[in-house]
Amino acid sequence: DKISSYIDVPILTRCCFCFPLRKGLITFAYGYLILSLVVTSVLSIYISYIRNSQKDIEDISELPNLIVDITELVLEFVLTIVLIVALHMKHLMLMKLYLYFQIALSIIGFIYSLAVLIKETGDELFLILFELMINVYVILLIWSMIVKMQRDDTVTYTREA
């Protein structure tokens, strides 16, 4: 309610323009869960490789950034599980929790990316902007799902005898 009073947010009726909204979001959430698990595993293996090799001073200087990335991915993993539960149970509060988390994480992630942008290459910059666009799209999808659920809950049918 607070967001809609400040800006006019478009309401999407389909996920990726072809799937029903709820089923598309569930599919996206499971895909994101698997992807974050794979990336977290790869980064964990890379961190352990860096700590055990201790050869390159450049690689060791990456360690704090990698730990921040792992922490963010674990938090996203947990809250993606919350989103999956919310979508299956049609639980409005959990969906709002994930929406606010996704907005905050997108802003923090973008600011963090700008802070380390000096060291980034063109490919990494593209990935940062691509991730931001995907996050904005997911935020719009979740917002649309919340609005749809609120709208559907306000309609009540009475049966006259």
From TrEMBL:
Transmembrane feature ranges: 29-50, 70-87, 99-119, 125-143
Keyword Transmembrane helix listed: yes
Keyword Transmembrane: yes
Keyword terms, alphabetized: Membrane, Transmembrane, Transmembrane helix
Domain of life: Eukaryota
Protein name: Uncharacterized protein
Species of the source: Danaus plexippus plexippus
Lineage: Eukaryota, Metazoa, Ecdysozoa, Arthropoda, Hexapoda
